Amino acid sequence: MQKGFRTFLAGLINILLNIWLIPISGYEVAALTTLISYFFLLLFHALNVKYYLKDNTISARYMFSWAFLMIALSLIQYYISKRFGMFSLTERISRIVIFGGFGIIVITRLYKRMKHYLK
Length: 119
Prior knowledge:
This protein has 119 residues and is mainly alpha-helical.
């Protein structure tokens, strides 16, 4: 499969999920369907890199573990914003703590993992 087809397939998954789920659950589910389609896009491109390009710089397990963690944190943040209100002080502080901390952890771990490639 060509790279463009995989991207098209991920977009098609997003469109079909939107057509199916938005009438049932409302517009907020569009964010979830986009997240699902991006997950498939990540999967398709990870398989492309592993099997066609034969590159194992970063393993798929490593990538997907971080992706699942990001999804879990996003869902936690969503429920916090629903509970306390969007842009409330509690929601803003939780967003800074959750995603700021996550960003710092990801950047430092990726740097440690990739620093020998950067030389």
